[in-house]
Amino acid sequence: MEIQAGRDLLKDDYGNYYIVSNVSGDSLTIINAALYYAFNQMIDEEFVAKAREMYPNEIACGKYFADQVMQHIEELERPESAGSILPIESVKNHYELHVKPIYDDSFHM
């Protein structure tokens, strides 16, 4: 089982997706995928313009990041994709998982 940071997603029993942010030997650091996208995007004029183009009506900010996760999922579901969506329970059999929580101060650009 080869897992690559920034590419592969893990899915838990509740339907939540996690992105692998770091691989170190048999240890993975994972972050909720929507949070990962949210904390890697600067809110600037370019971002606002892009969001307004994608969503002509007002939406909650989270919709934009949830849609980024959906795009990632759709890419991985293509047959030619190099990445995978793996059940988190099966990954636990091969790797030690470190989950970055929402309140962690280690998120940065």
Short note summarizing the structure:
The protein is an alpha/beta fold and 109 residues long. Helix content is 34%, strand content 23%. The mean pLDDT is 90.
Describe the structure.
- With 109 residues, this protein is an alpha/beta fold.
- The chain has one domain.
- Helix content is 34%, strand content 23%.
- The protein contains 4 helices and 5 strands.
- It has a 5-stranded mixed beta sheet.
- A hairpin with a 5-residue loop joins strand 1 (9-11) and strand 2 (17-24).
- The protein starts with 8 loop residues before the first strand and ends in a 9-residue tail after the last strand.
- The model has no long low-confidence stretch (mean pLDDT 90).
Put simply, the count of helices is 4
Element-by-element helix/strand order = EEEHHHEHE
Strand content: 15-25%
Give the % helix. Answer: 25-40%
Mean pLDDT: 90
Give the N-terminus to C-terminus distance in angstroms: 29 Å
Unreliable residue runs: none
User: Helix/strand/pairing class, anyone?
Assistant: alpha/beta
Number of domains: 1
Largest sheet: 5 strands, mixed
The radius of gyration over CA amounts to 15 Å
SSE inventory with pairings:
Elements: E1 9-11, E2 17-24, E3 27-32, H1 33-38, H2 45-54, H3 61-77, E4 85-87, H4 88-91, E5 96-100
